[in-house]
Amino acid sequence: MGHIVTLLIFLLILGLIVFIHEFGHFILAKINGVYVHEFSLGFGPKLFSFKRKNDETEYMIKLFPLGGYVMLAGEDYDDEENKKEKKKDKKEKEKVVVPENQKLYNKRFYQKFLIMVAGVFNNFVLGLILLFIMGLIYGCDYSNNRLSHLQKDLPLYEAGARNGDKILKINGHKIKNDDDIILWVAINGTDKPLTIELEKKTTKEVVKYTVNAKEVEGSKYFGISVKTGIKKGFIPAVKYAFTKVASIFKQLIIIIISLFSGKLGIDSVSGPVGIYSVVDMAKGSMLMLLYLTAYLSINVGFMNLLPFPAFDGGRAFLLVVEKLIGKKVPLKVESIINGVGFVLLMILMVFITIKDIIKLF
After folding, report:
1. Residue 75 annotated among the catalytic residues of the structure
2. How remote is the C-alpha of 283 from its chain's centroid?
């Protein structure tokens, strides 16, 4: 029963994030007069679909819920030949002829660009709203960079740090709050020494400590603990939402850079199976589920911003290139680039999923 509940919550979270993302593309396409063939949640065989009166779009839910898409006229190379076939039933097909002025590639630069990035924008807005709701209902966590509640038997205290000392840097990186500490400790790992730069509370002297993590009951700790608290109210909730979105965005940038530089390994990346495991751990707390959904939504938005083929950012990047060189990238070339990018992305996803499954055993 527990796994069924976890699966339902997982699908609900994923479905919400995908729907919000694709709805961004969909609504901007409609506003700008682009013909929308399909709006789909999921991939694979079609489970359910419908069409509204006086609306060309077929809305559908498909078997595999790990994503979704909006099919726009003029997005793929086949549309240049004005070919779009839809199944009317199992035996018949009808050809849909789309007017040239309703094809994506015939729209202005700013219209195409807005349609491409609308999904990303929606993901950030969803994250912002969920974090605001969290702050409003449960209060807003805040922290600073002053040490507090240090445990005497852990490495940092043993090295000489005391409550009230201010953490200036970890491994040379500036520290403002608990989010920064968690990020840089995670990137460092507990198998390597950690260098911490402090400003002593009593003397204002700047000192450096290099500490090794200490194992306690199967887990390793450096013993870093800073002052935290909770604020309540509408204004603190607004401030918390914007601050947290910025913090998560910053973390994701650093994580991507660390992956490419080799400071983080591929083992630190999780796919759907890894997310399912996190949902299973968080399902007993509405607070944790709200935060997880917000984090994943911002994550999806951020990843789609990357200028990688098959991502929204990759398509937006090609639009900018076209604008700069004053010449359109041939649709066939764009389709090939996006196709290759999609295949590479699927290979990576399969690899990460296998890795996540192995971790379960």
Report:
1. no
2. 20
DSSP bridge partners of 40: 60, 69
DSSP 267: G
207 three-class SS: strand
For the stretch 123-149, pLDDT in tens is 999 999 999 999 999 999 888 899 999
CB 230 within 8 A of CB 128: no
Domain ranges of the chain: 2-135+279-360, 142-231
Could you please state the CATH topology (level 3) that the domain comprising 142-231 is classified under.
Answer: Pdz3 Domain (2.30.42)
Q: Which of 22, 58, 75, 334 is catalytic?
A: 22
Dihedral angle, C-alpha 19, 24, 25, 26, nearest 10 °: 70
Could you tell me if 310 and 342 are in contact, meaning their C-beta atoms sit under 8 angstroms apart? yes
Q: Give the Cβ contact number of residue 77 at 10 Å.
A: 18
Contacts 24+ apart (CB under 8 A), 190-196: 190/220, 190/221, 190/222, 191/220, 194/170, 194/222, 195/169, 195/170, 195/171, 196/156, 196/161, 196/167, 196/169, 196/170, 196/222, 196/224
Q: pLDDT digits over 43-61, tens only?
A: 889 999 999 988 999 999 9
Look up residue 70 and give its amino acid: V
